[in-house]
Amino acid sequence: MKKIITISLALSALLTATQCFSQSEPIRSPGAIIDQAPTTHWRALDPDKTLYIELEQGRVIVELNPQLAPNHVKQFQTLANENFYDGLNFYRYVESFVAQAGDREEKRKIKQAKASVKSERIHYANKPLKATYLPKNDGYADKTGFINGFAIGSNAQQTQYWQTHCPGAFAMARSNDPHSGSTEFYIVIGQSPRYLDKNLTVFGQVRSGIEYIHQLKRDPVTSAEKGVFDNQIKTLRLASSVPVEQQTSLEVMDTDSASFKELIQSRMNRPNEFFIERPDYVDVCSVVVPVRTKALTKT
What we know:
Radius of gyration: 21 Å
Strand content: 25-35%
Number of helices: 5
Shape: globular
Structural class: alpha+beta
CATH topology: Cyclophilin
CATH superfamily: Cyclophilin-like
Strand order of the largest sheet: 4-5-12-11-13-3-2-16
């Protein structure tokens, strides 16, 4: 009897964790889920936690993730407020890997920000954080899922969390010293280098404008002496410091919402008629968190 009860409880927990949908409620296509998601299933970006990277090609918008890496977010908020990146550039571009930016020649002085930030590659929690998990793990983490719109991995005990290196991930570059991160950052632009997870601090995600990163020069020149900075950053600012009329109003789907949980199932099972084979599986980097221009409130 004890074994039967244990199995029953395990099955119940599995159904709850995977947010299964009955056959009487067919899973909709990803497009239909996104288009029909109610306004309560979306959240606006916080201007104090949003970076605008202005490039010649256009505006790149990054949402910062203070829940898992608060000190790195504070560092970049400070650097943005002191205009540290104005005129610097993306000096390294590795195809299908990362684009890296900052003060390559190490000539710019930091004013209020710290000379280095202690690594926050893993967030340690006293109790499990509220997360939407995928029903199956992968080779890089015991559990994967989403917390507040960011793709994450965690250990089985849910006491360690980290943001994963999915496309568009915003992270701190460093030397071999794990605590040497300071001002240099990179953006994942191609294949998901998940082998970097837990090795570097990821603390944000590009929400708009990743196409402008892909348009950067592949072999940029950086020379203050010659006055040449290919892939130049015009400005890097917090959205809250930009006049309201110049801000970009974006909304991100709430990853704890029923719409997003259905989206996970849709990505796993591919309900569109086009598909012949349906793997019933998806990795965390293949579930892109939907973003849309903020809906206007009707009066």
